[in-house]
Amino acid sequence: MTASAFRRASRRAGAGPEVAGSRPAELPPSDPVPATDPSPNRAPAGEDAVTVKGLIEAAGPDPVRVPAGRYRERLELARPATLTAGGQSGSVIVELDGDLVVRADASLRGLVFTGGGIVVGAAATLVLEDCEILDSPSTALAVLASARVRARGLRITVSGGNGLYVGDDARAHLRDSTIENTGFAAVHLADRAAAELQDCVVRASQEHGVRAADESSLRVDGGTIGDSRMSGISAETAGRIEVEGCVISGSGLAGILVTAPTRARVERCRVTDSAGSALVAWTGTEPRVRDVVIERTGKNGLMIADGAGGVFEDCEISETLYPAVHVGAAATPLLRRIRIHDADQDMALDSAAAAVVEQVESSAVSVSTIPLPAAGPAPDPEIDVDELIEELEGLVGLASVKRDITAQVSLMRTVRRRQEAGLPPPPTSRHLVFAGNPGTGKTTVARLYGRILHGLGMLEGGHLVEADRGALVGEYVGHTAPKTTAVFRRALGGVLFIDEAYSLAPVGGGNDFGQEAVATLVKLMEDHRDELVVIVAGYPDDMHRFIDSNPGLASRFTRTLTFEDYDVAELLAIVQQQADEHRYTLDAGARQALLDRLGGIARGEGFGNGRLARQLFQSLTERHALRTAAIGDPSPSDLETIIAQDVPGP
């Protein structure tokens, strides 16, 4: 092995992206194999001391059976050799004075090497069975030039450099082997090299567990990769990457990092307990990921960076601290049959992303932003808008609101007719402010308004999604926009009704997160201006202040509908409606007692209106039940008639 070859093997790798989330940064470099200088062979003291070198020379081309014991010497295999431990595996310990250099085909069985590594060069083929390489000050096993290594039951423990380094055009195949406690990456592939790890254990690397750079190729079949200080697998190569049936756990950064436009395929793997993201597809990469379980990550489950692509299907993601799936700008992944659960947020999808999302579902998540079709009913051409208008007119009171809604319906009909005639529509704003005290029918009217617009073909679904500050505002920085977006997406095709909207802009709010919710809402309304209607509701004075708090709100909410308090006769009419619906009769005495009771209630901010009337009816039925229970054999008339005695006092 020449010094120049070692210098090529030991060149430092360039920086890569930091993968523990959605922000790029520098990764520290990794040194594969440091250079060494040859030193003279030293055998045990005494003229008759047995050396491995002496046994090889004495045997000639025949296999060598090395007696059990401890040997210390400088060793090089420049001609074909077969060395087997004379006792059980591990009974022969060779304390190397420098690296064991293999230049010819060799087979080593049951031997333990300490104090140095093994370097395989030229076109040599080395077979290792049940061998150990312990306490190597540099790389434990280096395979260079066009050499080949096949190892089974190999154990590499404690190396100052890489556990296994494969460079140039070399090949290595390890089976049922262990590489642990390495100073650099446990496995490092460079140049055009290729390696296969079959049912191997890789753990406790001070850098990556397995790193493939340049144009190298890697196959990992089964086994585990654990407790790497950096990534479990770092694919920085233009070559082929195949990872199947592997468990990757405890990575200090990403579980699997793909940073080069490699042909990466990951199947039937489990990635757990990554301090960063579990699986990262960096810009320009297009991995194929299938049947992967991801759980307990410090950042994203899948982090698909700006401009990345690939196919991700049949995966399960849970217990992530960042969104389970992050999709960056201009990213084009196909996400199919992904199940997300027990996470704070299921998906963070950049507005400029072009992801295809099919059969992605989530459960037990705080914030859901999966882009789904509108949650409301499908468009129904059989809806009779005139019947809905009659239903609106049948509501108690609200004379001015009914006029305004009817005018809006007429305008929308005109808009549709002009569009059908090929004429441009007049400027309109479907978004509304409902100003009024609680219990004045705002939610009921909002629901009817959505159904009417659906019947006119102006909304796809016409369903109503109710929200308040708690549904829109997050608990920490970066949480509010996803929560607001999630609620907004559920309302697409229908009506988003935000009650007590003024609480999003509290007096003297300063840096209150409600401002972020308002800004997010304004942007989404612009991006989806024809896909839904937003109605904001609350006390009149507070709603004026809310609309004035953001110029974007003032330009989008140009029409305010005022919901006046119900007068006494209207409140009685609501009680009468409740009685008719539940098959009760109010006699004359009850009606007068109700008028007196309703007229004596103080009015002011927070007056209950319709809610008060409904609560009063519930009290009537409870008192009626107590009274009729005392009647031995109540008649049908007794059971349905409410009298003055049933009306509660002030």
Automatic annotation (TrEMBL):
Domain AAA+ ATPase stretches: 428-567
Alphabetic keyword roster: ATP-binding, Nucleotide-binding
Superkingdom as given in the UniProt entry: Bacteria
Protein name: Right-handed parallel beta-helix repeat-containing protein
PANTHER family: AAA-TYPE ATPASE FAMILY PROTEIN / ANKYRIN REPEAT FAMILY PROTEIN, AAA-TYPE ATPASE FAMILY PROTEIN _ ANKYRIN REPEAT FAMILY PROTEIN
Compositional bias per record (Low complexity), positions renumbered to this chain: 1-16
Protein family membership: Belongs to the CbxX/CfxQ family.
Record region (Disordered): 1-46
Pro residues bias (residue ranges): 26-37
